Amino acid sequence: MNKEKEEMPEEEQAAGEEEKTLLALQHKLEECQDKYLRLLADTENTRKRMQKERKELTQYSIENVIVEFLHPLDSFEKALKFAESSSEEVKSWAVGFEMILDQFKQVLLNHGIKEYDSLGNRFDPHLHDAIEMVETDEQEPGVVVEEAVRGYCTGDRAIRVARVKVSKAPAPESKEELQETNQEKEENG
What is the 3-state secondary structure (H, E, C) of 129-160? Predict the structure, then answer.
């Protein structure tokens, strides 16, 4: 009987050790599953980021090519403006070229690229490149008074900013000029 009593504690000890081993293995399994899920999520995030970067790179490449086509289109438009003051034969040719120009512009629209008008709008450094400041009383300061090169945008981003002339307040006359103007008024008045 003593042997049976001695064996029981050994069996209990073995069972206790097996239980500890089982708990340790379960804990290790949970850690491995957690690592696996994190790695899976990281891989998915990397895949999505790479797809987004590839799409943006493709979009920027297309936009760069389109921007290169905008300069010849500008020249095309300028040439057609001169055709209005030419002979009837040239005017008839110009009608056909205007149709071709419209087709080019339609292709741009189909790709989400639009021209934007700047005349009369406030100067915006994201949309305009000021090439000159013009003193005038006709417009308030900071308004686009002339557009040298038309701007184009896609969505909310300009792919080519408009080159414009911007109004500014006339410089105040010097004291000497004011005195001369006042003397002239007194003499004439």
Answer: EEEEEEECCCCCCCEEEEEEECEEEECCEEEE
Fold of the domain built from segment(s) 112-172: Nucleotide Exchange Factor Grpe; Chain A, domain 2 (2.30.22)
What would the two tokens of residue 73 be? 């289109």
Residue 5 in this model has a pLDDT that exceeds 60: no
DSSP 101-139: HHHHHHHHHHTTEEEE--TTSBP-TTTEEEEEEEE-SSS
Q: Give the span between the Cα atoms of 10 and 59, in whole angstroms.
A: 73
Task: Give the model's confidence band at 1: pLDDT under 50 very low, under 70 low, under 90 confident, else very high.
Answer: very low
Q: What is the pLDDT of residues 156-173, one digit of tens each?
A: 889 999 999 999 988 776
